[in-house]
Amino acid sequence: MISKSPAGFAASTLQIGVMQGRLLPKIAGRYQAHPRGYWQDEFPIASELGLQLIEFILDYDDFESNPLMSGGGCSQISDLSQQTGVSVKTVCADYFMEAPLHSSDKYLANRSRKIFESLIDNASKIGITDIVLPLVDKSSIIQPELRQNFISAITPILEKMRNKNIKICLETDLPPIEFSELLSNLDASNLAINYDIGNSAALGYNPSDELKLYGQFISDIHIKDRTLGGPSVLLGEGDADFEAVLEGLRQINYNGPLILQAYRDESGLEIFKKQLDWFRKLLQRFDQT
To answer: In the chain, where are the structural domains located?
Structure first.
């Protein structure tokens, strides 16, 4: 069976983290990307802000230079975590939005599988527990035939990693019932869910429905706000129903990470601080009520 989140829920004591790069200036003008060449600078900043986690990104471009893809790089991540107290427990594998595991191009799909397996091996060696696999935008499986292709592609990978203490967390744009059916078809102990609050709001999905259907399988959450059918906005200014999400998380005793993948500007830091303060106050109010 798919692994369930452990019991215990107190919103204000959950571990809060940041999506990599949100505390640093943009790299090459990109909204979300691994800050190649200066990623180390984010650890002390996160520590000063009282954040416990950084969710790393594996990009398609220059993926070979990402520290997650080499033994020396992984050692550097571990050293920085020990020095600052900021852990890396989760990875957002954006690489596979550009080169999906279920691509119809057999050469591309085979190459992606090998890269994904290398990522799993390296990540498991440094204590990473969750690899978020985005199935949105270019890698969406909203079409039934693509969904079947994905099942065929991911099943042997899940079999190979059965003995590793790491989960693949699916992030999809599927409607709640169809997502629930996908999980039933895969039914693997090392499969979990990444729940993106903002993306669900933009798609018009009801968080209460989503969390009732598969909330107990969520092991990683992206904190984001978006307008219905629109872009990311400052936390609290979009259509995300954070109160309903927190209540749903309370019902399932969620105690996993909360990763702020919130709206950003060119510099990143000051606007992140504003949203971090908003989010912490929200958690405190929720606990009090």
So the answer is: 11-288
Q: pLDDT per residue over 125-151, tens digit each?
A: 999 999 999 999 999 999 999 999 999
For residue 220, give the H/E element and its range.
strand 218-223
Task: For residue 23, give the nearest of 280, 224, 268 by alpha carbon.
Answer: 268
Query: Does an H or E element contain 196, and which?
Result: strand 191-196
* Exposed / middle / buried, residue 228 (Cβ in 10 Å: 0-12, 13-18, 19+): exposed
* 11-288: CATH architecture: Alpha-Beta Barrel (3.20)
* Among candidate residues 186, 254, 177, the one with its CA nearest the CA of residue 215: 254
What is the 3 state secondary structure string of 107-124? HHHHHHHHHHHHHHHHHH
Phi first, then psi, for residue 69 (nearest 5°) are -100, 10
